[in-house]
Write a structure and sequence with these properties.
The complex is a heterotrimer. Chain A is mainly alpha-helical. Chain A has 15 helices and two strands. Chain A has a two-stranded antiparallel ribbon with strand order 1-2. Classes of the chains: A mainly alpha, B alpha+beta, C mainly alpha. At the A-B interface, helix 3, strand 1, helix 8, helix 9 and helix 10 of A face helix 1, helix 2, helix 3, strand 7 and strand 9 of B.
Chain lengths: 589, 263, 237
């Protein structure tokens, strides 16, 4: 790279030094535990999220044991089953996916990708992690209180969530609500960091339209989360009031064991509006970072500029904005005013257009590319297939009349697992294989990685594609057993057993992944600074892993967008963002 | 290389699975055939899109895989292509949404001559209220619920006295006449779901929700609860029979009215 | 959900205005290598803390807009029974206004470099805010004594919830005021002190705004006003 001739007049003076006060750790504790370095915080977030995510994985096995082989495992009672599904759902959506994409990838990648030394409010960033950890611990504590964790379903619908025929109504539901409130407070501290860092700490030359799509995705998702999470916070606090102080925000006049309860005048539907006002943006809070990251994985490993970068950015912004006016498509059969269905079905299907554009552009990036089948690329391809599949089944559920027979059946379970379970997790795996060399300085084992990919991709598809058809027969979700339902044929039960077996196989493949993560730390190939020959700034750090402050003495200066791959006339098939002018390029473009 | 073939296998396998699958909606027993038609139309459109996208991707993976001397084409965007794709996608979306909205317009407008009945959910039992001779249901509210009045019928309202009450028993309804299902709950959320009817709706304590349907096939069906309602959720089932008008009238005569129940 | 959608529309318009100045239509692959397009460090930048506060206030605004949405959604159901706000609640606006004015004054003084006067303004603001909190607690006791306890019905529950949410933010604001005072005591850089007071004054102005909106909603004036608008539109059309 050093021998590329460049026009001296085109190079800018270096960005000034010490643009921000950098926190300097004084001891081992402040360096690795109470660290204010975004990269350390990112790893803390990731490890915690994977830890609690593993609990949710085990819960999914228990759920599948019951669904695949009903009546065989006597230790799973209906109470326990409902607790498993509730905790599995809540952990996966909030404590794993949200925390990992924003707290994990956001913290690691934003400062590096925009050329900053760190987040702008490092102290708040540190607090954000510790509050998240407390939220996780409170959640875990609910497994050990009398009555166990709540079994109200991850949507926590009242009145059921705080009534006596629901498991965990003594302590579990309280801890769940407190944990969610804490999570939101912690997230807000982190979220302020991510947004302000993108807005204010970009290095010289890093205009918004030169940012990698990863940063765009995480940035827009964070803005959405900041505005949407208050809805969950309000709902959680109001339900806590109902449970602890005896107010009736969500509790109408009702009867339990033949006795009138002291509640009256509340509206259960109000909770659903608040929950889904958070809940639908939440889907995109998980999806947008995945969209961004996968764009960068595909461009890098296909050695081609991302196709239609501007469309990709606009689509992210438009999807983010639209996702705030579609929430009630989760409530078509909730008993809300049925005329809302017209509006929400329309907005929901409109969102399909920008989303489809993103899919086309990923595939068109592969077209005329130079595709390297590395593990990150494989996972990115797996993402496209599962996301397209899950996205298309969303068109069934978004179209209000088709939702009527399918809502609350296994079809819904299959749909959202495909689109916001499997697809984002494919991206998470791809991203880890991609950035692990930057984080640790070592490559992950490609052999184990490919094994991990094939089992996970094929297995997950075989779990969730057939599950749609179980739902079509009419099998409701959240049923402890579906054996004796008249409309569900015995053959569907055989299918259920098959799905369960696949779930175990896929689950165990994740152990291989964890082994790979640990083993490669010591035994992986040395990666060097830029093993994938990528353009974006995080690969141009003076040291790998980047040290505290990221950039040594001088901040990088950015001269171009993040997708100069295979530029005609360039000596190599990529030009780093901080690379000044290349002779002859102007003529060729 | 292998990936390209696996992608083809995913498409072929998924389509074959769909065509060969014995798992489909249970046979229709109501007027909501339009819902099935919209679903099938959506299967066609989404199936074509899925096959097209994934097969094109497989082609790209095969054709543009890395080999010595292969270089990627530098092409930041292609406005014409993108405009075409946006237009096509929008057309597909409109093709799915339009029939959906038309069917929904029918779904929300209950025919004026519909017979009004009420389903009352409680943990974990189905109760019903059918109009007596006056053809209408009396007022009801959860405030009135007690041991002698399990459905919370307003004792002051004369229209409620002749309402037939079915506590936990089988529901029988006539075919070929539109029925408006008013839905109530005395405790938590439930959802009245008969897969053969297609329509379903949540039941919320404190309000009356509804849907309507005309039964078209005589027969016995199972009622499922489709909204998590506590530990007994999966056992909240009910029996439901669609019969001719004569059989219905005969059956109704054997049921107990609110006035009889209270005394 | 009208209130939150209206709030988000305002946020969206702000974002749109900002985004329209960010060159989202440029083709980034064409504009390499030119120093003129580098931007960034050449443009004056607001301090991150100010942007951070702005975004934080958007989050707080979203929280209150959602509470108001929930309130409106519930109040629209047929059986809603409100109650007249006691006079003390109205009177309580005065100390909050005083706190905000004191901080505005501190902001002006700090800009002129009168740090000691600015400190007096901040301490005055703290005092007035404490009076506000005391007044709110008193209002709660009066209401409870008059039979409007927190469990008395939806209107009562919402009143306590919304005033508690606002009160907690005010208390947080009082605690945060310790920061400019500590900076003045440590004789920090004048610019740092000025920024710190600036942030505090903005926050308190926002708290005052939230309070006014809450009063209008809880007293029913907002609903009456909207109904009047509706009648005027219907009458003219």
């Amino acid at each position: 790279m050093a021998d590329i001739p460049h026009d001296a007049s085109a190079s800018a003076p270096p960005a000034e030094l010490g643009e921000m006060e950098l926190y300097h750790p004084r001891s081992w504790w402040t360096k690795y535990v109470f660290s204010q370095d975004a990269k350390v915080i990112a790893i803390q977030y990731a490890v915690t999220a994977f830890g609690i995510g593993f609990v949710a994985l085990v819960l999914s096995w228990l759920i599948r044991l019951q669904l695949g082989f009903p009546g065989t495992f006597n230790f799973i009672s209906p109470e326990a089953y409902y607790q498993f599904i509730t905790m599995h759902g809540m952990i996966m959506v909030v404590y794993l996916l949200t925390a990992l994409f924003l707290g994990g990838f956001g913290n690691y990648l934003i400062p590096l990708m925009v050329g900053a030394r760190d987040m702008v409010f490092p102290y708040a960033n540190m607090l954000s992690y510790w509050i998240y950890l407390v939220a996780v611990l409170v959640l875990v504590a609910s497994f050990f209180v009398p009555g166990g964790p709540t079994g109200a379903g991850w949507t926590l619908y009242p009145p059921q969530a705080i009534m006596s025929n629901t498991p965990g109504q003594q302590g579990g539901i309280i801890l769940m609500l407190v944990s969610l409130a804490l999570f939101i407070i912690g997230f807000t501290m982190g979220g302020l960091n991510y947004t302000v860092t993108v807005l204010q700490a970009r290095t010289r030359g890093m205009t918004l339209m030169r940012m990698p799509l990863t940063v765009w995705g995480i940035f827009v998702a964070t803005v959405m989360a900041l505005l949407a999470f208050p809805a969950l916070f309000v709902a959680a606090v109001m339900m806590l009031f109902d449970k602890l102080l005896g107010t009736s925000f969500f509790m109408p006049t009702l009867v339990e064991f033949g006795q009138q309860l002291s509640y009256g005048g509340g509206s259960p539907i109000l909770f659903q509006h608040l929950f889904w006002f958070f809940g639908h943006p939440e889907v995109y809070i998980v999806a947008l970072p995945a969209f961004g990251i996968v764009s960068d994985l595909i461009a890098t490993h296909a050695r081609r500029n991302i196709f239609g970068y501007r469309m990709m950015v606009w689509a992210i912004v438009i999807i983010g904005a639209l996702s705030f006016i579609v929430w009630a498509h989760h409530m078509y059969v909730s008993g809300m005013n049925p005329y809302f269905g017209f509006f929400f079905a329309t907005t929901t299907l409109i969102i399909a257009v920008p989303t489809a554009i993103k899919v086309y552009n990923w595939v068109l990036t592969l077209w005329r590319g130079d595709i390297h089948f590395t593990t990150p690329m494989l996972f990115a391809l797996g993402f496209i297939v599962t996301f397209v599949n899950g996205g298309l089944s969303g068109l069934f559920l978004g179209n209000v009349v088709i939702d009527v027979p399918l809502s609350d059946t296994m079809f819904v379970v299959a749909h959202f697992h495909m689109v916001m379970g499997v697809a984002p997790i494919m991206v998470i795996f791809g991203a880890i294989y991609h950035w692990y060399p930057k984080v640790t300085g070592r490559m992950l084992s490609e052999g184990l990685g490919k094994f991990h990919f094939w089992v996970t991709f094929v297995g997950a598809y075989l779990i969730f594609f057939p599950m749609h058809y179980v739902g079509l027969t009419g099998a409701p979700r959240r049923y402890f057993e579906t054996t004796d339902i008249a409309v569900v044929p015995d053959s569907a039960m055989a299918l259920n057993a098959f799905i369960s077996v696949m779930a175990f196989i896929v689950g165990f493949a994740q152990l291989v992944f964890i082994f790979n993560l640990v083993w490669s730390l010591k035994n992986g190939k040395h990666a060097g600074g830029n093993p994938w020959r990528a353009t974006s700034l995080e690969w141009q750090t003076p040291k790998t892993p980047p040290e505290h402050g990221n950039w040594g003495k001088e901040l990088p200066v950015v001269y171009r967008w993040a997708y100069d791959y295979s530029v005609p006339g360039a000596p190599e098939d990529f030009i780093a963002q901080n690379q000044p002018a290349v002779a002859g390029r102007e003529a060729s473009t | 290389m292998v990936v390209a073939w696996v992608m083809v296998a995913v498409v072929v396998g998924s389509i074959a699975f769909h065509l060969l699958s014995p798992w489909w909606f249970p046979p229709l027993a109501s007027n909501w055939g339009y819902i099935d038609d919209t679903t099938i139309l959506t299967f066609w459109i989404t199936g074509i899109v899925f096959a097209a996208v994934v097969l094109f991707m497989a082609y790209c993976l095969f054709r543009f895989r890395h080999r010595d001397g292969n270089t990627a084409r530098y092409e930041p965007e292609n406005k014409r292509l993108e405009t075409w794709l946006v237009t096509l996608t929008a057309a597909g979306v409109i093709a799915m949404l339009t029939p959906g909205l038309f069917v929904w317009a029918q779904f929300v407008s209950v025919p004026e001559d519909a017979m009004e009945i009420e389903v009352i959910g409680q943990q974990w039992l189905w109760n019903y209220r059918l109009p007596g001779e006056d053809g209408q249901l009396g007022r009801a509210d959860n405030r009135f619920v007690n041991f002698d009045n399990p459905l919370g019928i307003d004792p002051e309202d004369p229209a409620g006295q002749d309402d037939y009450m079915i506590i936990g028993g089988e529901l029988v309804l006539p075919v070929d006449a539109p029925v408006r299902f008013g839905l109530r709950s005395v405790d938590v959320l439930h959802n009245f779901y008969v897969p053969e009817i297609r329509a379903k709706m949540d039941m919320i304590p404190g309000s009356v929700t509804y849907f309507w349907a005309t039964l078209t096939q005589e027969g016995s069906y199972e009622i499922l609860c489709a909204e998590l309602c506590g530990t007994g959720h999966s056992y909240m089932r009910g029996g439901f029979r669609a019969v001719t008008q004569d059989e219905y009238d005969q059956w109704l005569g054997t049921q107990m009215t609110f006035a009889e129940f209270a005394s | 959900m009208i209130a939150i959608l209206a709030f988000l529309t305002v946020v969206a318009l702000l974002v749109l205005w900002w985004i329209s100045r960010q060159g989202l239509m440029v083709k980034p692959w064409l504009e390499t290598d030119s120093v003129a397009t580098l931007g960034g460090a050449d443009q004056p930048r607001l301090p991150p803390a100010q942007i951070g506060l702005g975004i934080f206030l958007a989050v707080v605004g979203s929280l209150f807009a959602l509470l108001i949405s929930a309130y409106v959604l519930r109040a629209q159901l047929g059986d809603w029974r409100g109650f007249p706000l006691p006079g003390i609640v109205w009177a309580n606006s005065l100390p909050l206004l005083a706190a905000s004015l004191a901080l505005e004054w501190a902001r002006v003084r700090a800009r002129h470099g009168d740090i000691m006067l600015a400190q007096a303004g901040v301490i005055g603001g703290m005092g007035a805010a404490a009076v506000f909190i005391a007044g709110q607690l008193w209002a709660w006791t009066i209401l409870t004594a008059n039979g409007y306890a927190i469990t008395s019905g939806p209107a009562g529950s919402f009143f306590y919830l919304m005033t508690a949410a606002h009160g907690l933010h005010v208390i947080g604001g009082i605690v945060a005021l310790a920061r400019p005072i500590a900076k003045i005591r440590r004789a920090d850089d004048v610019a740092a002190i000025r920024l710190s007071i600036d942030l505090a004054a903005t926050y308190w102005l926002f708290m005052l705004l939230v309070w006014v909106v809450l009063l209008l909603v809880l007293s029913g004036w907002a609903a009456a006003f909207l109904a009047l608008c509706g009648r005027i539109i219907a009458g003219s059309g």
